[in-house]
Structure formats: C-alpha cells, structure tokens
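Instructor's aside before we start: the two examples that follow are unrelated to each other. I chose them only because their records fit on one page, so don't look for a connection. First example below.
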Amino acid sequence: MFSIRGIDHVVLRVVDLDRSIRFYQLVLGCDVVKRQAHLGLVHLRAGTCLIDLISLDGKLGQQGGVGPGQEGHNVDHFCLRIDPFDEAGLVAHLAGFGISPLGPASINFGAEGNGLSLYFRDPDNNLIELKGPTILAG
C-alpha cells in the first residue's frame, strides 16, 4: 500500500509569529520557504522536513482553542536529527541565545537507534530534542 519515509512537517501554534520565526532561524538555522499570510502560516525548512508556524491570531490559529503555555502544549516534543552532535558546542550555541538545556545530554531511542539527545524549549514552551547519530554498541 505505502511506506513511511520520514516526517514531512510539524505544525506549531505560536503566540508571536515573528519571535518564533527569529528563534527557528537563528537558533536552529531554519529558512523561511513560504508564507501564507491569509492563514497566519509560515513554513520553515528544517533539513528535509518543514516546521510550520501558525499564529494564534491568524485564520488557522483561531480554530485551535487556547494557545500554548505553561499548562497547555501543542505537542509533547519534536526531535531533529543533527550532525555532528557536539554537546559542549550545542550548549554554548544555545547559551548565546539565552537558552539553557533542560539537562545534560542523555541516550535516547529514536528512528536510527540509541543516540545522544539534548532538550530545550522554544519561546512558546514547545519541547525540542536535538538528536545525534546512533551510538554503536561495542
């Protein structure tokens, strides 16, 4: 019938669209590939995938109820597979934007197997996991 090739996109409802665009561009290196202002929607390239941001005050955002915050979340988290995984470098990069990881890197299971992950939050309190390559048992 069909086979899944990977995640195509993740859609997040955000309080401040411009702030979130800046965050994803500066912190994660995403590029805006399309804007649909009539919907309050911006598409950002994240490797081979997209992160779509929907403004709460836009047409689509108004359909979703209460916005993200400390007590209400859009999703549990999303994971971006990265190369290389240099924990000290990542921590320093995030610190440059005033962001602290939620803890040290830990080994977690993902699509490619076990690998190191680092977690932090975006401006709307969405949890982001940066995941490195598989750690081979040896």
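Example two begins here.
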Amino acid sequence: MTLTVLDPRTALVVIDLQKGIVGFPTVHPVAGIVASAAALAAAFRRRGLPVVLVNVTGGAPGRTERSFSLDGMPPDWADLVPELDAQPGDLRVTKTTWGAFASTDLARQLRALGVTQVVLAGIATSLGVESTAREAHAMGLNVTLALDAMTDLSPEAHDNSVQRIFPRLGETGSTRQVIDLLERG
C-alpha cells in the first residue's frame, strides 16, 4: 500500500546502521541508504518525534545451519555510523535477534511514549527490517517502510521483502514522501 498518512505519534526505527554491517557488500550503495536514514532522523527530531537507533551485538541462541558470531570482529563493529548524528534524546536499542522487539524492551518504551506507528529503515531489508516490521505489525502498530532507506545483501531477498512481504505489513514510500508527510503534519 502506498504511503498515505503518518499518525501523530510516529517513531522512526533505524535498524543496524552500524560500522560492521555497513561494510558488507549491499544491493544499493550504502552511502545513499545512510544519507536517507540520517535525513529521516533529522526530520523526526525537528518534529519532536522519537528516533530509535538499533544495533545488533549477537545472534539468537537457536540452532541454525548458518551461525553468526562477533568473535574476531573489530571493537567498533557494533557502533552506529556517525552520519546518524545520534542525539541524547534518541532511544538506543541493542538487540541479539533479527527483529528489534523480540530481545529488547522497545515495545514498552514505544508504548510509554504513546507511539502508534513506526517508520522503518536500515540493513538488511529481508532480515532486521522485515523481522522488525513483522513484530511491529503483530503488536498492532501501523508500519511504514522507507524503501530508499534500506538495502540488503541479496537482490532477490530485498525484492521479495519489498514486493511480497511489505505490502502485507504496512505502507511503503520514499524518504521524501515520509518527510513531506512529517512537514505537513
């Protein structure tokens, strides 16, 4: 569904734009993804709306064929990219699962702020962003996905999320469309 409206209490949730992950080869140039997410964060802050900056420091404990470990990663691997211009008022969430809700208190924090909608951005479209979108939708939050502020490691995975999954979870639009709605709000 094309982007139509933002609720008065909408939060931006930026997934895994951290030094270690932005170094992976992605489908879309990561500089553009980071710039779009940073523009969204600045626009949300100007409106006094919550900005949630999420990073990942590990993997879920369940058994999988592919395991992920931070062993041997540089010490700053989980640090958010400086372009996001993290502010003291931003919510910071560190997760150990794909989605930002399952292993954190993000749901409680957003409820306490009266948030009814989230705008999602980040890496990877089919992993952290999609998992967070699914969790938010299941919690009853309205979900908006800023498509030009996200990318993936796989073009097929990115396209599947954008074309098949996201339209079932919420509305999609561009960074510019989200910012325009914020400015009109």
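Residues 30-46 form the longest helix (17 residues).
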